[in-house]
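Subject: Sanity check before I submit

Could someone independently write out the structure tokens for this chain? I want to compare against mine line by line before I put it in a report. The sequence has 162 residues.
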Amino acid sequence: MKKSDNLAIRAYIPSDKEEVLNLHRLAMEAIGVSGHEPHWNEELDTIETTYGEGRGLFLVGTIGDRIVAMGAYKKTGQDEAEIRRMRVLPGHQKKGFGKRIYTELEKRAVESGIRRFFLKTSVLQDNAKDLYRSSGFKETGQVVIDGYDCIVYEKKLIMENK
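---
Independent answer below. Compare away.
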């Protein structure tokens, strides 16, 4: 691994907002999804209230001062959560950054009592599908969201014995 590829993972802070929005836009455009519905971005405008105060977790991955990866989980019940907003900046993909963000999300989710993850991802997102399958997710269905065919995945999280 090159020194420039050292990824640091940390919790989102409000000053990250513009970079997070840009990362989201660039990642979506890279898979051919541009000019998407404005409501797709609503939670990115309210990260602190959507994911804060025990409602979930939003992480960013940085190289130096630049955000190159992100991901989140949002609680949907007492012990379950939905994986959301997994993105890696085009040009930084295929370096394991998405896997590292996901692994940290799962670790922290387990520590907070989450027992099950689920998510939906577009059939267009081959890298995402590979990540989820390699992380132990199982396909449980398909849905259409705003005209895009999506796959539904689920994973039961393993609790460590202490």
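---
OP: Matches mine. For the report I'm noting this point. The first strand starts at residue 8 and ends at 11.
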